[in-house]
Each structure stands twice: as structure tokens, then as C-alpha cells.
């Protein structure tokens, strides 16, 4: 993919630096009260992280390790992490980690995006939902794969078992990102990697950026595992509803397979993630408990904000239309 | 397939307030003895009785009241 258009002074500086590394302009300073909603910040983070995934055709080949870019990203991350810490840090208890994760998930009474999608979403709204999702889903599982070389024994075995399923178990056509492409094509969406990044709102980029933050820094490995567990534990029920919504809107079983596949697969993954992955990790690293929960809580919080964003937009449209 | 005492061909594990995971070599038949279509290496079998895709688990158990472990 190519570098997306800038959204403010931060992304402008970063894109400039990546296109012309010999340029010596100083990066602008940064302050924000609401990092998750800051378009310029989230796009800049997204670009900085993407250098470690597929990268950009028009960026300097080793922009990934440009010390100026890394220092710039670290500056942005300071505010971003401070906000996450304020909003998402939870007090651990003595209960087994799987139970604590379950409690966190159950306590989250977010907006009912999946129920809305199932019953009311128009084809256009479904398309918008999927286009937003594609920012992460076209690299589904990739952030969590960064955790593999950082863990051992049963934790590694559990992580690899989940990831192997996400990547299709050796069959590219079963890879979750590929199943997602089928759904995109049904909706007439462009399934090229990163195609909807330029128009994705800050909150959509933030959903991806939080996993990349945990993926890039070894120090956040426990949060990365907790994040994965939260994704897996909040997957089966919504995906059942998304599948029903897609079928209502005329999808074939194949078009909706991404969603139905996640009902079956994540019924397995949620147990492995909560009990085997996080369970064994916390057994080996008792002091990591709080960070595991923190990662899960971050995933839930951002998913919530994303759901709010879409539903609010759709509600406003309804008001205008009626 | 080689088997020995330390490494059974199939591992079956129950999860608290959740399904049973079956891993390894198995054949899954429904109530009429018809093979259940799944090409998964690990499956989750419902034990709450509420799954819409029984005998597989579909996550519905998480909506039911949980019994604490004794
Ligand atoms: S055990 Fe999961 S749906 Fe019954
Ligand atoms: Fe998946
Ligand atoms: Fe999964």
C-alpha cells in the first residue's frame, strides 16, 4: 500500500520524513486530552506501526528503524499509554485469571452493535461496518503473532494453536483474513490491504493501534495476551449476530462464512486463550496478572468506543432521514 | 499414528462453566450416527445443552449463570 494522506502536523511530519529521510525538520510537539479520537495522532501511530507489518511502497526502505521515527513514535505513545492507563487499568483479585477475564467481559455493557447489525443495519451500514473492520481484519492475528517468540512452554503452545487456526492451518483459503476478503467482495468493497485506512476514523485506527502498541514492545507481552483473550472471549455471540445480519441482507453461506467460522473457531479459542494461554502465563509470571487484565480491558474499551461511533453515526442519519 | 502411555492419541479436557475440548484423533458422530462435518483439529463440545450448533459449542454457555468451582 501507499502512504495515506496526512491529517495534521504530526502525520505530515512523519510522511515527509518517510518519503525524504534526509530532511531535517524537527518533529512537532504533541499534546492531546483525547488520544483515541485524535485523527492526526491515530493516523501517525498507525503509519509508524505499519512500518513493522507490510510497510508502504513509497516510504524509505529502512524507515522502520529510522531513529527519528522511533523517537517520534515514542513521544506519541507516551500520551496514548497514559490515557489507556487512566481509562483501562483494573484492580486484580485473587481469583483465577480466567475468572477475572470472564468478569471483565461480563461487566462490559457496551452498545448493542451486533444486535443492531443483525436486525436493522442497511446494506450500506453493513458495508461501512465491514470497511472499518478491514483495517484490522486484513491483518487479522498478525499483532498477536509478535508474542510467539516472547513466551515459552504451554503459553507458546496455546498461542501457536490459536494463531495456526487464524492463519487457516496451512490452507490459505481458510485464513481468517481471506474469509474476510470474501465478505468484502460480496459487499462490493475493495479488498486490497489498507485500502480503507485513508477514510477510517481515529477510533478505527485506535482499535488496531492498541494491539500494535502491545505487539511492538516486549514489555507489554502480558497485555498482548490479555488483549487476545478479550477478543476471543467476545467473539462467538456477536459473530452469530453478524452472520444473521449478513444472511438477512442476502449474503450466501460462503459470503457469511467469515462470521460463522468465528462462532465455531472462537468457541475453542476462548477456552484456550483464557485458561491455557493467560492461565499458564500468569502461573509463570505472577506479577504480570495486572497487565494481562489491562490488555483485556483496553481491547474491550476500544471496541466499545468503536461501536458507539458507528451507532451514533447511524442514529444521526436516521434523524436526518425521518 | 504412534501411541504410547505418555502421549495419548486424543486429549479431552473440560473447562469450568464451558465446553469440553477434544484434541487429536477423533470421529464425531451426531445422535443419528451421522458424522458431524468439521475439519477442525480441536473441537469444543457443548455441555450446557444450549448450543444452536450442538454437539459443538457456540459460546451460548457464557449467557448462563455460572457455578463457582468448589
Ligand atoms: S458449552 Fe458452550 S454453548 Fe454449551
Ligand atoms: Fe479469527
Ligand atoms: Fe479466534
UniProtKB/TrEMBL annotation, chain A:
<protein>
    <submittedName>
        <fullName>Iron-containing redox enzyme family protein</fullName>
    </submittedName>
</protein>
<dbReference type="Pfam" id="PF14518">
    <property type="entry name" value="Haem_oxygenas_2"/>
</dbReference>
<dbReference type="InterPro" id="IPR039068">
    <property type="entry name" value="PqqC-like"/>
</dbReference>
<dbReference type="GO" id="GO:0016491">
    <property type="term" value="F:oxidoreductase activity"/>
</dbReference>
<keyword id="KW-0560">Oxidoreductase</keyword>
<dbReference type="InterPro" id="IPR016084">
    <property type="entry name" value="Haem_Oase-like_multi-hlx"/>
</dbReference>
From TrEMBL, chain B:
<keyword id="KW-0411">Iron-sulfur</keyword>
<dbReference type="InterPro" id="IPR018967">
    <property type="entry name" value="FeS-contain_CDGSH-typ"/>
</dbReference>
<dbReference type="GO" id="GO:0051537">
    <property type="term" value="F:2 iron, 2 sulfur cluster binding"/>
</dbReference>
<dbReference type="GO" id="GO:0046872">
    <property type="term" value="F:metal ion binding"/>
</dbReference>
<dbReference type="Pfam" id="PF09360">
    <property type="entry name" value="zf-CDGSH"/>
</dbReference>
<protein>
    <submittedName>
        <fullName>CDGSH iron-sulfur domain-containing protein</fullName>
    </submittedName>
</protein>
<keyword id="KW-0408">Iron</keyword>
<dbReference type="InterPro" id="IPR042216">
    <property type="entry name" value="MitoNEET_CISD"/>
</dbReference>
<keyword id="KW-0001">2Fe-2S</keyword>
<dbReference type="GO" id="GO:0005737">
    <property type="term" value="C:cytoplasm"/>
</dbReference>
<keyword id="KW-0479">Metal-binding</keyword>
<feature type="domain" description="Iron-binding zinc finger CDGSH type">
    <location>
        <begin position="23"/>
        <end position="67"/>
    </location>
</feature>
